[in-house]
Design brief:
Layout: H1 2-30, H2 38-56, H3 59-83, H4 88-106, H5 132-136, H6 141-158, H7 161-171, H8 173-178, H9 183-209, H10 221-231, H11 236-258, H12 268-272, H13 274-288, H14 290-296
Helix pairs in contact: 1-6, 1-9, 1-10, 1-11, 2-3, 2-4, 2-9, 2-10, 3-4, 3-9, 6-7, 10-11, 10-13, 11-13
Length: 308
């Protein structure tokens, strides 16, 4: 039971970067924009947060500047794709590659430097509940903020007028334009929100999850977040389930590596690849249901809007 509690506790923390980045990409794609640069934006948020926190001795300032870095990266993407009307796939890939290289250059002198990460925040009385209290109510403040953002995004998309406009823009941008809505403005704001969330997800990695900086430390989480949006069929609750699933598999493979027993003959690389293999298997299963997938994807996703 103790081991089970530890695994569940670690699962929640492991899913937070995916949940944050996935929510940002979900809103972005709901507006009709496909941004493949999440990995680069997360890395820029991660290195910015760590460098600022080390130099200023302020974790709060690190989070703020990480959000700014992610927003700045997404603003470049928005300018290229929505103003200059460049190809979204090519621009997103370029943004990701640029973020990987630039973050490695900026963080070169900070590899191995120590940092006191964000401490856990125990919620009075609730944290003392057996089993549930330890799993749900003994985390850092960013975990609670992430779940708050999850419910806020869900309510925004499905229970607000502006959320309806965002979804309408992704489904039929010409109709939204004819109704008097600024398609470009809506999509720019959605892209900026995606950048903010990616920057915050990166900051969580270096300031909370593993308080250190190493090159390419996101380890493909940006690409996994992209896959989770598809796995979720562009729905927030399914995205949460996918993030928890990936987090659970990630933590489980770490346990298997340290307690192999009769699995000692199995190469450790196989355990390390388990989270990614699980993601691929899930996506393949979903792609089989082609009809349901086509009904879920925003109709104008990735298409260039040209005002008439």
């Amino acid at each position: 039971m103790e081991l089970f509690i530890v695994i569940l506790y670690a699962t929640i923390q492991a899913c937070i970067p995916l949940l944050l980045a996935g929510l940002g990409e979900l809103v972005c794609e709901k507006s009709g924009v496909l941004n493949l640069g999440i990995e680069g934006m997360m890395l820029m948020g991660a290195v910015t947060a760590f460098v600022v926190a080390v130099e200023s001795d302020s974790l709060f300032l690190g989070f703020v500047m990480a959000i700014f870095a992610g927003t700045l990266m997404s603003a470049c993407f928005a300018f290229l794709t929505l103003v200059l009307r460049a190809n979204q796939v090519a621009s997103g890939l370029a943004l990701s590659i640029f973020g990987v290289g630039l973050s490695a250059f900026i963080g070169l002198e900070y590899v191995g430097k120590p940092l006191q990460g964000l401490e856990n925040f125990f919620i009075s009385y609730l944290s003392e509940i057996p089993l549930i209290g330890r799993v749900l109510f003994q985390h850092d403040i960013i975990v609670y903020l992430s779940f708050g953002l999850f419910f806020a995004v869900h309510r925004f998309l499905y229970h607000s007028r502006l959320g309806l406009v965002v979804r309408a823009t992704g489904e039929n941008h010409d109709a939204a334009h004819m109704m008097g809505y600024s398609v470009i403005k809506i999509r720019v704001l959605a892209v900026l929100f995606g950048g903010m969330m990616a920057g915050l997800a990166g900051a969580y990695l270096t300031l909370v999850y593993t308080p250190l900086w190493s090159e390419n430390m996101t380890a493909g989480r940006g690409w996994i977040a992209l896959a989770l949006v598809v796995f979720a069929a562009w729905r927030p609750f399914r995205l949460l389930v996918g993030a928890l699933l990936f987090g659970f598999v990630s933590i489980t493979q770490l346990f298997l590596q340290s307690n192999q027993g009769f699995l000692s003959a199995v190469p450790t690389e196989l355990f390390t690849s388990l989270p990614y293999l699980t993601t691929i298997v899930v996506l393949v299963v979903i792609s089989v249901a082609q009809r349901r997938k086509n009904l879920s994807v925003p109709s104008n996703l990735g298409q260039v809007f040209e005002p008439r």
